[in-house]
Amino acid sequence: MKRVDLIKEIAAEFELIANWLSETEVATVASVVELEPQHLAEIAKRAQKLTGPKNVKLKTVIDKSLLAGIIIRITEEFGALFIKARICPSKGGDRFQL
After folding, report:
1. Which pLDDT score is estimated for 78?
2. DSSP code, position 33
3. How far is 97 from 87, CA to CA, in rounded Å?
4. Which molecular function terms from Gene Ontology are attached (predicted)?
5. Quick check: 95 and 87 in contact, CB under 8 A?
6. pLDDT at 79
7. Backbone angles phi, psi at 34, to 5 degrees
8. What's the predicted TM-score (pTM) here?
9. d(C-alpha 8, C-alpha 4), whole Å
10. 49-84: string of b/e by CB count within 10 Å (b at 16+)?
11. Residue 92: per-residue pLDDT
């Protein structure tokens, strides 16, 4: 059992180093339901604008404690950025408003 835990720790450290080398920020997206691919693409695009030239990798989390909308957490070198967003109806379909 200890070896399994050790492998998980090694994998997590490897991911951190790989993200650092590839200048990739990991953004955690919490929502009540699973998001559609086009919504995730829009979130990634907007998160990349906030982080500058860095790549953005999204990790999704289902959070049943939310009533509506999403919460995006982007961890950067000197702190964390939290963004609350909501889905707004538009002519072209649902869009996120950050």
Report:
1. 46
2. S
3. 6
4. proton-transporting ATP synthase activity, rotational mechanism
5. yes
6. 53
7. -65, 135
8. 0.65
9. 6
10. ebbeebebebeeeeeeeeeeebebebeeeeeeeebe
11. 54
- For 32, phi then psi, to 5°, come to -75, -35
The two structure tokens encoding residue 61: 């989390």
Q: Tokens 């000197």 sit at which residue?
A: 78
Residue type (1 letter), 42: E
pLDDT along the chain (98 residues), means of 10: 83 88 87 89 85 83 85 67 57 53
Structure tokens at 72: 């995006």
Closest CA to 22 of 57, 50, 46: 57
Contact between 74 and 81 (Cβ < 8 Å): yes
Instruction: Determine contact, residues 61/28, Cβ cutoff 8 Å.
Output: yes
Q: Are strands 79-90 and 70-76 parallel, antiparallel or unpaired?
A: antiparallel
Structure tokens at 84: 């609350």
pLDDT score for 61 = 92
